[in-house]
Amino acid sequence: MQLDLSNESLPVYEALASPVRLQIMRLLSERPRSVQDLATALQLSSPIVTKHLDKLVAAKIIDSHRVGHKKVSTLRVDTIDVKFPQQVYPDFKVHRTAIPVGHYTAYHVAPSCGLAGPDDYIGRVDNPKYFMLADRVKAGMIWFNDGFVEYQTPNFLRRRENLEMLDLSMELGSEFPFSNNTWPSDITFFINGCEIGTWRSPGDFSDIRGKYTPDWVPDNVNQYGILKILRVTNHGTYLDGQPFAAVNLDDLPQDSDVWTIRFEIKPDAKKSGGCTIFGKGFGNYDQNINLAAYYS
Fold this sequence. Notes:
By secondary structure, the chain is mainly β. It has two domains: 2-75, Arc Repressor Mutant, subunit A, CATH 1.10.10; 86-295, Sandwich (Jelly Rolls), CATH 2.60.120. It contains four helices and 19 strands. It has helices spanning 10-16, 19-30, 35-42, 46-58, and strands at 2-3, 33-34, 62-67, 70-75, 81-82, 93-99, 106-110, 114-116, 141-144, 146-154, 163-173, 185-191, 194-201, 226-233, 236-239, 242-245, 258-265, 275-278, 289-295. Helix 1 (10-16) runs antiparallel to helix 4. The two termini are 38 Å apart. The mean pLDDT is 93.
């Protein structure tokens, strides 16, 4: 589950703001439990436990269902991520470009793989040859188990413009047939042929529907990813504001007319769990792959 600072996330924050509900989640992480089981473990009455469970159900953190005469609760999520607004540097000017996820310029992928558009799948799933369909440009979500996809976007920097920082923003997840919320995958980023670093995606999520994922997409397949912000600076690379790699701007070739971006599951990846890229009209962030070149 991914949260932001909007009011839509308030029910989750409110549900987490209770020692009792945190203890309930810890107990449910071990196994599903009935109201009476939880009441006994917490030394509380069943009506009080039920009120706490209702809060967690409203926040979509747990599910409750009847088994015979008992009401049994199960934990619905295993990860909650909070995304803060991106910080920018107002003293820098910026060139921005947005790359639709279907506008890749090179690829080499292996099943499970496929493309999804606003109304249906594009071509047949699990057949790499359909990645060359002309309609691929309409894709709002693509996925592959092994290999890479590569994008190009214009480099608008002029001769006297000095690159100060390069930001790459995209919504990513792992790839598992249908979905698996716990399915780690090592996704490696490249810019202009330079390997930046590898991020381990925790899973391929379908615990809740993506905010923008079209209604036609089944509930049990990829619904959303995690928004990642890769920032290359003069003193290293950061991922979501945290130190990520030693690569700095001097390591990146900058004299090309284009920026070349690659997402790859390397052959020697320790966790080869595939890659899903969400674009505009899919996932939790209504955006393409965004590149921002800050300059002075």
